[in-house]
Amino acid sequence: MPRILRINTRERSWRFEEPGKYAGLGGRSLTSRLVQDEVPADTHALSAENRIVAAIGLLSGTGAANSGRISIGAKSPLTGGIKESNSGGSFCQKLARLDILALVLEDKPEPNAPLVNIVLTKDGVRFDEAGDMAGKGTYACMDAVSERYGKKACAMLIGPAGESLLTGASIQFSDPWGRPARAAGRGGLGAVMGSKRVKAIVIDDEGGTRFGYADEARFKAASKRWAEILRAHPVTGQGLPGFGTAILVNIINEAGAFPTQNFRTGRCEHAPKISGEVMAEYMEKRGGKVKEGCHAGCIIQCSQNYVDPAGEYITSGFEYETVWAFGGNSLIADIDDIARLDRMCDDLGVDTIEIGNTVAIAMDAGIIPWGDGKAALKLLARIADPSDALGRIIGSGVGFAAQAFGIDRVPTVKNQSMPAYDPRAAKGVGVTYATTTMGADHTAGYAICQNMLKVGGDVNPLGKEGQVETSKALQVATATVDSLGLCLFVAFAVLDTPDAVQCICDMVSARHGIDFTPNDFIAIGTDVLKVEQKFNADAGFTPEDDQLPAFMKREPLPPHNVVWDFSVEELQQAKV
Amino acid sequence: MPRILRINTRERSWRFEEPGKYAGLGGRSLTSRLVQDEVPADTHALSAENRIVAAIGLLSGTGAANSGRISIGAKSPLTGGIKESNSGGSFCQKLARLDILALVLEDKPEPNAPLVNIVLTKDGVRFDEAGDMAGKGTYACMDAVSERYGKKACAMLIGPAGESLLTGASIQFSDPWGRPARAAGRGGLGAVMGSKRVKAIVIDDEGGTRFGYADEARFKAASKRWAEILRAHPVTGQGLPGFGTAILVNIINEAGAFPTQNFRTGRCEHAPKISGEVMAEYMEKRGGKVKEGCHAGCIIQCSQNYVDPAGEYITSGFEYETVWAFGGNSLIADIDDIARLDRMCDDLGVDTIEIGNTVAIAMDAGIIPWGDGKAALKLLARIADPSDALGRIIGSGVGFAAQAFGIDRVPTVKNQSMPAYDPRAAKGVGVTYATTTMGADHTAGYAICQNMLKVGGDVNPLGKEGQVETSKALQVATATVDSLGLCLFVAFAVLDTPDAVQCICDMVSARHGIDFTPNDFIAIGTDVLKVEQKFNADAGFTPEDDQLPAFMKREPLPPHNVVWDFSVEELQQAKV
After folding, report:
1. What pTM, to 2 d.p., does this model score?
2. Per UniProt, which keywords does this protein have (chains A, B) (predicted)?
3. Does residue B254 share a domain with residue B359?
4. pLDDT confidence tier of residue A1, bands split at 50, 70 and 90
5. CB–CB of A190/A349 below 8 Å?
6. Where are the beta strands (DSSP E) in A277-364?
């Protein structure tokens, strides 16, 4: 049975323990339960009392397609509430091969203690000095990891932003090619890891073993059906592998919900120039790769190997959200500059959504010109220097930079930046932004499915009807998917395929030797949200915090000229 | 009957109106009622929807001693809640001579509209271009005001910090000598004024008239008794005029509640070197003035003219709080450097408490060395440059700078910095910090009286008993005093003098021709707190926000080794 590994970062000690009260939990259900139980809700997120927990999901370490997502949980230094952020890459599956259910970083050393790499092998845990990895970008760090620990070693690591304790800092993860291009981006978790003076957690899974199955035949049958389901759906089978998530650029822009120039309008004139279609065209012409999975067993393959005109690698994991933040919200029209910005964010270890939008704030404040990709690259580069005060401001996110520059147009909820859908013209995901425990977050309840894509239903994005119910149901289902280790994109297929939930239940039952039913599928997600809501209430969040900024209630968004018109009371109906 | 003057800062228009629903209110009772009624609680504090209101008190413009305090109200960009900050200086009395009860700045122009001076005379209102006053410190601005509007003109003005919209920005007021050394310091109100592109409000009260009295004989008799009361009490009659508020340095340090090195201990070794006694000695030796009132009719005279070794003026309004923030919390041992820091804060237009403590945060982050007064002066000077990112960070206050530098020891409540009394060893004022609507604020309910000074009672500062009741009663009484235009220091005498409240009631009754009783005295303050609590609830504040930071619950404060041990539920008993 996979165990929990507890690591004390002050004493550099470690021990394994049985799951105990965390038995039967995985992914987000484990991380949120542990944070709620073990982290005082009133603590400062960079204090010794905060914990980072990385947990594999209930289907991780199996042959199920798209089951390799790792969940990271802690109290967020950005929102002040509970956070779960999940990521692709190899880390989850290699943790599973070492028979580890979850890894918990506890305590913290003195602020100037040397940075360490924590190395996990089949023989146990050791602490290496990070040495000259300190202060380096994640790409250089992965080169060092390769040299020191072998090409097959994978890592969970922070860049200079996390070392500097900036609230926009991500935790990056290496992909199957050893590139640090996957991210647990949202909520500043990189700063928590930095506060514990951990540069990287490295896994060498040599000699590790695969999980068994309680009922292998049943698992294989369900898993086969599962792969068919994912391949058959147009989004997971064609759209995402063909064009990546940036397929959404034209869709959301046409819908008039593409936030442009710091959320002033819902449509950007040059959006077609920075779309997934254009990116695919360039990659084909230049010798990039249109289609890559971010972990072994991913069959959706929405990632890519994006290259410059000379065919040299620029970046991977190049998402719609990133293209939008720099291209739409910050008005940069050059997709190659945006690709370089994406790579730079991965290298610095910052969330592309948060920091992309912070660039828009900086443009609103006149720090750099609107749409100037080269100036944006120079500005972001400053984040790497802990003594550069402007770099620290930019690396701390939208709410922070807006306060620094006296900007009163601040598109955040619970101090987390809104993502790539203006809630006034996409009201379902707006309900999610307002009410999820995570702060303004699209993945937590991706009602774009029903509002824009006609997946899982068809709900008018511009009206109020049906949005609260849609968001609530999605938030529950998403919390379950996040607990299984499954990539969220499976939801497109699951929402439209009648036997998909039962198929998932069959896989869970067959893996663990339990009777996991569709009722359990709903119950897991509901319990997760209750635990998270309690933590946030104890941390001081109130129904008034489950609301969008005032300017969105007052200012109609072109082209549809819609305002945000949900009251606090109406929104509370989306809570469990 | 004094009128309300409404000024639209976008259109540069103005009109007078009768008090209407604000009749019978003054000072904080007027500002808080107006903010609650006219400012949407969810608005961004720098948006066009916020308003700044300056209101004279119910006893202002009379011959009553110490009745010249002006109250300034708005939604605070620092706390996100309601704010009232009051100040000395000549502004209140000159506003009264123009028969103005309150002045309201509404709306705002474009961010790059030219800065204006709004000039009030007996003939009305006009808008002058601020011209080359833009970007200047308040001392140079007062020279310009003198030149342009005459030596008798007084002003309410912002420095570069307010122009830069920094959340640590104060509003400064000129004293009877034309120096901008008085402040409405707390809560970032200077940024609100800056967002409306107003550099100064200037009053030339030439041709103005004095208020009449409904019953002049009764007023004079009560006013005579009032002056006797203030002169007779040892604090108001001897301690404060003799040594200023810095008389508290040795007292609070002896008591072990003098927060030292970012709230790590309660006692500072060099405190005696920066005490009020030492300051008085220097002023006497060097030819300064130990005793000055901040407005005509002030008989407590706690201010001073502090000079350098050559006898040259450095600063005035040199308070205990400022000496502590730079001298105790930031460990600067040179009282003359601290005086220069006080002057610099007035000149920049920043709150000495907030920014003094931000210097301690900067020292904790290793930006400058602990105790280095010269380095602190250099650091603060950067606030004047809007393009200096480090200056912007420092000028934005404790919570902001702590986040910028990843500091997890953050002594704030509702994002406002704690003042000069560690709540673990001064639990009465700790209850005030937690529960007042103002954020961590000592004046809102100054339980130091009962805890340390044995004024108005004797309550052990280290225990829980009696603190909630004491703080609550003081918060109510203070809200009343703040509505009368009286200087808060009258409270020392009032708490110990049985006929003082009746004397105040006699003055109010005789001025206004009403029957104002001790029950009304209590009712005014209670109503103010209810209005403020409602605004804050609508703005999203919750009982969990009425609490001190976690580290104060965990970490015992030397020398008494006390922790903060009030629960959220216990603290709610201090609310009305």
Report:
1. 0.94
2. 4Fe-4S, Iron, Iron-sulfur, Metal-binding, Oxidoreductase
3. yes
4. confident
5. yes
6. 289-292, 303-307, 313-315
Question: What is the spatial distance between Cα B53 and Cα B56, in angstroms, rounded to a whole number?
Answer: 10
Q: How many CB atoms lie within 10 A of CB B208?
A: 19
**Res. A407: pLDDT tops 90:** yes
Q: Look up tokens 């400022």; give the residue.
A: B322
Q: B486 to each of B28, B62, B71, B455, B508, how far by Cα in Å?
A: 11, 11, 10, 19, 12
End-to-end CA separation in angstroms for chain B: 32
Residues B85 and B158 reside in one and the same domain: yes
Q: Which residues of A touch B539 (CB under 8 A)?
A: 544
- A184 and A320 both lie in a single domain: no
Which residues from chain A sit within 8 angstroms of residue B47, using beta carbons?
A: 408, 550-551
B14 φ/ψ angles, rounded to the nearest 5 degrees: -155, 155
Do the Cβ atoms of A408 and B44 come within 8 Å? yes
Residues B250 and B113 in one domain: no
If residue A7 lies in a helix (H) or strand (E), which one and from where to where? Answer: strand A3-8
A193, A295: one domain? no
> Which residues span the domain enclosing B292?
245-422
B245/B321 Cα distance (integer angstroms):
8
Count of alpha carbons within 13 angstroms of residue B11, beta-carbon side:
7
Which residues are within 8 A (CB) of A132 and not within 5 positions of it... i.e. 6 or more apart? Answer: A144
Contact B404 A410 (CB under 8 A): no
Going by C-alpha positions, the residue among A348, A337, A346, A347 that lies closest to residue A377 is A337
Cα gap B486→B58, rounded to integer Å: 9
Quote the tokens at residue A97. 């091969």
Mark yes or no for CB contact B540/A544 under 8 Å. Answer: yes
Q: Show the CA angle centred on residue A26, arms to residues A25 and A28, nearest 5°.
A: 105
The domain boundary, picked from B407, B422, B437, lies at: B422
The closest CB to that of A539, out of B389, B393, B544, belongs to B544
Q: Select from A367, A401, A422 the last residue of a domain.
A: A422
A408-432 pLDDT per residue, tens: 999 999 999 999 999 999 999 999 9
List strands edge to edge, sheet with A182-184. Answer: A124-129, A116-121, A198-203, A154-157, A171-173, A182-184
Measured CA to CA, the distance from residue B140 to residue B318 in angstroms comes to 19
Interface of B with A in 434-493 (CB under 8 A): none
C-alpha span between A371 and B111 (Å, rounded): 20
**What SS3 state is found at A422?**
coil
B14 in helix, strand or coil?
strand
CB-based burial, A61-74: b 16+ in 10 Å, e otherwise:
bbbbbbbbbbbbbb
Eight-class DSSP state of B69? P
Give the DSSP letter of residue B10: T
DSSP reduced 3-state for A156:
strand
Q: What is the CATH number of the domain that holds B113?
A: 3.60.9.10
| CA distance, residue A537 to nearest chain B CA (Å) | 8
pLDDT at A552: 98
Measured between beta carbons, which residues in chain A are less than 8 angstroms from residue B403? 77, 167, 396, 400
Inter-chain CB pairs, A–B, below 8 Å? 108
Q: How many residues does chain B have?
A: 576
> How many beta carbons lie within 10 A of that of residue A312, not counting itself?
10
| Same-domain pairing of A160 and A302 | no
Residue A302 CA to residue A239 CA, distance in Å, equals 9
| Overall average pLDDT of the A115-131 stretch | 97
Domain total of chain A: 2
Say which CATH number the domain at A314 has.
1.10.569.10
Residue B227 lies in a domain: no
In a domain, A225, yes or no: no
**Distances from the Cα of B546 to the Cαs of A46, A109, B32, B401, in angstroms?**
21, 30, 19, 22
> Is residue B495 a part of any domain in this protein?
no
